[in-house]
Amino acid sequence: MTGLRICMLTTFYPPFSFGGDAIGVQRLSRALVARGHQVTVVHDVDAFLALHHGPVPETPTEDLDEGVRVVRLKSPLGLLSPLLVQQLGRPVLHARRLRKILAAGQWDVVTFHNVSLLGGPGLLHYPEDAVTVYMAHEHWLICPTHVLWRHRRERCDGKECFKCSLTYHRPPQLWRYTGALDRGLDRVDTIVAMSEFSRAKHREFGLRQKMEVLPYFLPDSPPGPTPGSMPPHPRQYFFFAGRLEFIKGLDDVIEAFRSFSGADLVIAGDGNHAATLKTLAADLPHVHFIGGRTPEELEEYYHHALALVVPSICYETFGIVLIEAFRLGTPVIARDLGPFPEILRRSGGGVLFSSEEELISAMKRLQEDTVYRESLGRTGAYSFHEHWTEDIIVPAYLDIVRRASARRGLTRIADRISPPEAA
To answer: 237-387: which CATH architecture?
Structure first.
């Protein structure tokens, strides 16, 4: 297979990023480079700075990230650049540069990720002769706020987008009422959801284009915790890892620990809801906030935890933390919502809860029944290697490209990708 020229377009890319979607783009890009492809990532620094509160990450001295070429767009007008994209739904200040980057003959494949502040739906028209793929890491295609959390207080079950945008203190996007998004998506060869749940949710909220499903992955062979290493926490504990936002559901878990004191709750991460959560847990000495941690430190916490708790009250598109736990043989206790039932049914590596009583019951059993806990851990680890490794998902991505190329009659691309059965 001859290497492909692939361009990844995304608003956020590490270190100018917030959550798991940007890490997912980085992992996919690096994995493709490792397989002999040429990958360039284009992202917008101003968009990150407009939303980021805190120290600004240090800009890498090189424009290469483990072989991935990185193009960082930055305008002298700063915040105005992403604001114009958000309002007009097309590239503005970076339009000329993006057209030059995406000109005919440059790429075999162009993959759109979260382009909400990079170029909006107008960017979908730019690639001239490449196979195009859109990966829906969030619900931006059907929700201006990306998360289907209506009026900052409830899961969305019907569109009230204009009023909802105002509750988020964001200018309403009038282009969403013009058909601009559909016209852009009609030009994309394949649209990808990260879970069956997310695909169904897109359909429910009116997306008329077909979607395929391609989940996230993790590198196949992490270093892992040192065998026989000491636990990073002195008592038995349940673990949470993620951004500290209201929609992540930690308020409910902390309340459950008022009546559950047999083990500790260790919380890794930071976010705009951190101060509220710390106030809520101020009188609970067995609830611990450890802030942000390196990937290596997080692996230690995952590995030694009784279970990972995933209590999100919003509609996630996937849930990378679940497969991070599975990879290290740690069971998962997840809210019976969104893609989590789908992932746990496929893995057999955890249990679901819908109420505080069910959460406490699950924690008690996992703490007290070592055989049960270890069985869930083994099953989750086995399923991880069956479903969510780099060696499974990257070829699946390339097969999506191959099939899209064949539909377009672009044999110069399709013939260079081996089908799965011949890989």
So the answer is: 3-Layer(aba) Sandwich (3.40)
